[in-house]
Predict the structure of Leucine-rich repeat domain-containing protein.
Amino acid sequence: MNTNLLNDNEAKFMNTFQQRILNGALEIINNRELSSLKFLSKLDIFKLIITNCRNIESTLYSYTIQVLNLSNCNIVSIDNILLENLKVLVLSKNRISSINNFTRFKKLIELDLSHNKVVDILFLRQSKIEILKLQFNQIKETSIFSSLINLKELDISYNYDADIKPIQLLSQMTQLRVSICNFKDIDVLNTLMNLEQLDISFCKGINYQQLENSKKLIQLKAHQIQNQSYNFLSLLENLKELDLSENIGIDLSRIKHFDKLTKLILQNNDLKNISQLCKHINLEYLDLSNNLGIDITSICNMTKLKVLNLSDCDILSLIALKDLKCLEELDISSNPGIDTSALEFLTSLIKLESQSNDHQNIQEFKYLFNLKELDLSNNESIDITPLQYLIQLTNLRLQYCSLYDIYALSPLCNLKYLDVSDNYIIHIEPLKKMTHLSELWLDGNKIHDFTPIYQLQFFEQFVITDQEESNRQESRLATQMHQMYSSNLQHREIRIKHQFIQLRSKAILQEINKIICKQTESHCFFANNIASIFESLSSNKAQ
């Protein structure tokens, strides 16, 4: 690379670009200007992700792309997608109602059309699709499923008028999600011999007893079981993951025999006594959130627990958890006045969420030496002094905590994500040494001087908004500086925010063009507002 043509910052960017782009994946996000995709023919990439880009009109052509994601791009038709070797196509959150000439995707094995307006899926006939996602559409006729002899995974949830018959669900299917669908034939599950994962939440017209034939079922999600017919659960002896949320008054004795269960979700069931769960000593994941007044004493026997959610349970103490030496993730949010003194025993915690708990003194937090992620948002009287001991923290959220200073955070040099928005902070000197920061949120404060963070070079996202009018110019300057040269090399990617000044220089465009011609090794490139770059590349190639 001829770095003589580039300034220091441009040379640094290009060295990183050369290592990361091409021969891998390209992702373009939130680009409202991008319309031409002609540059793709110049890139040897196998994966393309374009999301939240609303003006794509040109033909998309490439020999190499095998994975294409065009989510939320305002797409109505896919007639302009000419990718002969495409294997995975994601078109979720668009405006597609029908598809023509689908036969050209001869190698396609995975299709995601979720959150569209699809009514007719006859275009799928004779396709080799193995994974099909159609949730949140307007599908009624489903007879086509019987012809998809390779289909293994199907999600047709939230198609309220879909009429699914037993003959349409093939025996080789391993995953089925049909939540909020009405079935006219109650024996619709009768043929699913090889089913491993099933979601039948909020469904009507199902004969649950037919699950007796699904001996391989290991994952079941069944919210609001019709007529509270829990007898069928005794047939599912191989279950490893079970979600019975929103089944008010459920009898937990129905699941006490599941000795293979490792994950159990019982959200919003109005549970009080969970003593029937005491024998589930192999549980690793337990979610009891939104069960006000629940007695958690029985949890003390679940010594293999790694993840526990007790948010919105109105619990007053965590003493029942003190012997859970394997616990890594804990959510105790929205339990105002909770006594957290028992946290000093949970030294294996890696992630802790404790929002909206009216915390004041949190001295016991200083013993959580292994903690990496912490959320203490919405605790308006909290003293954050003990946080200075948590030097392993990488993610910290302290929004809406009525903080006037953040000096206690000075030792936290490993932070990558910090949100202290909506406080009363004036001085930000403690951020000087946080050279690993990749995302920083400071909006809603009273900051006057941003110079302490001008030397931080690794921001992916730096948000300073809603400042006093007298500070707006300096805020914009700080934002521009750190968004202009943002990168995060540790994650093998570059994230670029509004780099018009840097990337429009003739020298750097020439260097990018050289890299594309050489097809050098790299991994992934993420960009915002880069239409001008690729247009320049196309024009340079033409010349």
